[in-house]
Design a protein that fits this description.
Helix content: 40-55%
Shape: globular
Number of helices: 11
Distance between the termini: 69 Å
Mean pLDDT: 94
Structural class: alpha/beta
Number of strands: 12
Radius of gyration: 26 Å
Low-confidence stretches: none
Order of helices and strands: HHEHEHEHEEHEHEHEHEHEHEE
Largest sheet: 6 strands, parallel
Strand content: 15-25%
């Protein structure tokens, strides 16, 4: 009997020794193989509006970086601002049956019917920054209505006659059919209706063109020399507003507000040098992270195409000279 107790004790000590040794060396994470297997060999197609500016360049860099790390591919099809070329690129991609198509919509309707076709073929669709009227697996981007309301509230505050200002403001939209215009102006005008002391003296479209924005803003400033504030819908376009304000000798006098992805060149430099008084950042690195996370989620879980409907609104940050800091903006090399 004594011998059996001694033997059991010896075996127990031996097992404890083995377990302790294994823990000291670490153990495999049991979920790792299935995660990496789900990513390997997948195919993603990205159809931006154009690869000629900072937003798609940032998303594309981050998409490619994760794809290389996880063993899948990202194929970028650049339609160069042409909606019909974008539709053709999506149609071709549907025929090739990738796992996921990512699209930056030029407007809210042009690609809508293609998303139903993609779902019928079992392809997931992610929409980035400008959403279609047709919901797909996910939209990653700003709440444009909310952003418009945010900008209107800011201008109503800084341009209030109660603060000695004229109460006159102007708006420069982009393409009128784009989500960034049609949803944003809705939020802007709804908020403005709450401020009877503020007058919207101009509401025009520059179609994302800085030269056109400068021409329009020059005329508006001539017609309203006491203009207090200007809100444009994209900071690259709105450098035209800043140029017109500078030519009129009113830099720092007219409150120029815009929005953008938060790149150093388009946002922080222009806030720092006073061309823009305030710029609402919708955070391209954060959007890229959300896109990459949606890719990982869909490839792991493989829901039926067309059933998942997620909205990932990007947190907004109003950047001004007062709160500008080293981390306010990003550079493309940070995402590569």
């Amino acid at each position: 009997m004594i011998f059996k107790h001694v033997l059991r004790a010896c075996i127990g000590v031996a097992l404890l020794g083995t377990s302790a040794a294994a823990l000291a060396e670490g153990i495999d994470d049991p979920v790792r193989p299935s995660f990496y297997d789900a990513m390997k060999g997948a195919r993603v197609v990205f159809v931006p509006q154009s690869m000629s500016f900072d937003l798609p360049q940032g998303w594309g860099a981050a998409l490619n970086k994760q794809a290389k790390e996880l063993g899948y591919t990202v194929d970028i099809r650049d339609p160069n601002w042409k909606t019909d070329a974008g539709a053709s690129a999506i149609t071709t991609a549907i025929g090739e049956k990738p796992d996921i198509i990512i699209v930056q919509n030029p407007d809210v309707k042009s690609y809508a019917r293609l998303y139903k076709k993609a779902a019928d073929e079992g392809i997931y669709v992610l929409q980035i920054n400008m959403n279609s009227s047709q919901a797909t697996e996910a939209y990653v981007g700003p709440d444009w209505v909310g952003m418009g309301a945010l900008a209107a509230a800011r201008l109503a505050e800084v341009c209030s006659p109660a603060k000695g200002k004229s109460g006159k403001i102007a708006v420069m939209q982009g393409d009128l059919t784009a989500a960034a215009s049609t949803y944003q102006i809705k939020g802007f005008t709804d908020e403005l209706a709450k401020h009877s002391d503020i007058t919207l003296v101009s509401n025009q479209s520059a179609n994302w063109d800085a030269s056109k924005a400068q021409s329009i803003a020059t005329t508006v400033l001539q017609q309203h020399p006491d203009l207090c504030g200007y809100f444009g819908f994209w900071d690259v376009q709105d450098m035209g507003i800043a140029a017109a304000v500078k030519e009129a000798g009113k830099t720092g006098e007219v409150y120029v507000m815009s929005s953008g992805g938060g790149s150093e060149q388009s946002m922080c430099e222009n806030v720092r040098n006073g061309s823009l008084t305030a710029d609402i950042s919708f955070d391209v690195p954060g959007q890229a992270r959300d896109l990459n996370n949606m890719i990982k989620y869909l490839l792991q879980t493989r829901p039926k195409a067309g059933e998942t409907k997620a909205i990932l609104y990007t947190p907004l940050n109003v950047v001004t000279k007062d709160n500008l800091h080293a981390g306010s903006c990003y550079e493309l090399k940070d995402l590569q």
